[in-house]
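ARCHIVE RECORD
Type: protein–small molecule complex
Small molecule: hydroxy diiron-OXO moiety
Source of inputs: curated submission
Record status: active
Notes field left blank by submitter.
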Amino acid sequence: MTSKNMLDKLNQQMYEELNSFYIYASMASDFEARGYLGFAGWMKKQAEEEMSHAWKIYGYINSRGGKAVFQAIPQPKADYASVVETFKASLAHEQHITACIDKLVFLARDEKDLATEQFLGWFVSEQVEEEASVQEVLDKLKVLDGSPSTLYLLDKELGARA
Ligand code: OFO
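STRUCTURE (tokenized, with ligand):
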């Protein structure tokens, strides 16, 4: 049995995932406006993944006798100063999401809710991947000198993800 408290916290996490979608969709649009179509495609893919995370939680809440409830999502930041700044913000956001997921796992353990703990296991692994993929981009940006030509090449490379 999944407690009302746990279901409420899962609802909060569904909000976090939808908020992530909003943030990354906005980053994609900012990249697109600056002509970085590859970075934009990469971020759009990221945003789509966030939407799929939200649906996963939605399905779980409803399958455990709860009801997924949608909260208002704040307007995301629309303009970033540079490509590096955008990816740094993305990494910070993923670290925040990891902390949220970890808290949920500890709550599930406290409540001896094995089903929810197991459900959250997928998100724990996913966060390792998500943080690593953003870190990889930041590492490449650090190695490259940030000149327009290298940014152009990286933009092309990341565009292949989409
Ligand atoms: Fe980016 O992993 Fe969900 O939020």
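CURATOR ANNOTATION: The chain is about 80% helix and 0% strand.
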